[in-house]
Amino acid sequence: MAPIKWIFSLASLILFTAPALAGFSSSSSTNVAIYWGQNSLGQGTGPNAQQRLSYYCANTEFNIVPIAFLTTISNPTLNFANAGNNCTAITGSSLFYCPQIEQDIQTCQQTYGKSILLSVGGSTYTEGGFSSSALATAAANNIWTIFGPQTSNTSIPRPFGSAVIDGFDFDFESTVSNMIPFGQTLRSLMNTAQSSTGGKPYFLTAAPQCPYPDAADGPMLAGAVYFDAIWIQFYNNYCGLQSYTPSTGTTQNNFNFATWDNWAKTVSLNPNVKVFLGVPGSSTAAGSGYESGSTLGQIIAYSKSFSSFGGVMIWDASQVFANAGFLDSAVGYLGQAPQTTFSTSTVSSTSSAAASTTVTGSGTGTPTTSSAAASSTGPGLVNQWNQCAGQGWTGGTVCKPPYTCVYLSVWYSQCE
Fold it and tell me: Which interval of the chain is the signal sequence (predicted)?
């Protein structure tokens, strides 16, 4: 096949000099990231097969899309499952050109305000990193020329053509070597580009497993690489969502969001890094850790109580969009006010279904409390499955008939 010729208008060259309309917000606790590209539900045809990227971006309930995966780095290759059917090989490389994805990245960014990240790794990544720091640095520079801002060098393979991603996500599932210089170089390149392109933000994220420290990303996360956010995979592990225990309040035995909050505040190179609650999008998206309904609501409420909380990550688009109501429910719970703020993971409290308690972490593990009778009035009647009580809750407390407010934990009651 003849080499692909890249011809771009002035409009396309300046398209991304302005900041994105929305996308990831480092000051928000209601971000939602959904992975796209792997068609993990496995449907080849029909409405539940993976659709093109822009189809999902039209949904307004999430703002970040890590597209998965760049499966090798040294000799870059991509795998987007059935979305790759619309791509053609680029002569002289192992990459392919994807005009549909090129168009969709631009549409997602400019029309729908999404932040589009390229996720590196995945379960099939087997390179193990790099044998030297020099090779890691060279690979980072190469990846940046391929997926970062376009240059005048037309010999560089550009799978996404004129489209420029908003950053990179690291999803390594096994131990990797010399990833610190790789991550540091990408971060430096993104910072330089941001300074020279009028402030277009670039982000670096990671998706560690919930056991701390993470076996794959641990060295990078140990104060070595500046990350904007990490989304913890609270599934397929003993510390997953299934280990959350409502009755224990703030003290959790295995579910360890508090541990990652402590990492954010005491270890992370970026003291303002955001920690996301990573969840499966359906019961078939993971071996363990899937939760829905009020249980998921309780976990989100608990996690949102920590100041590092940045939102929810969901694996993946094909799963969650086939699971009717899940995304709506998760976003609804996410939008509710946090119940309290903790500075430690050992704050304890007492409660009853008839009283609410406000708890403020003192930094020593000793809370101060104040109790008040549950109000029978509020800003309006509460719909089924929505919150109606809990520590710090200031919303409505009276359910629409015939539903009643059912106590589930110190943090959460809902209309059922």
Answer: 1-22
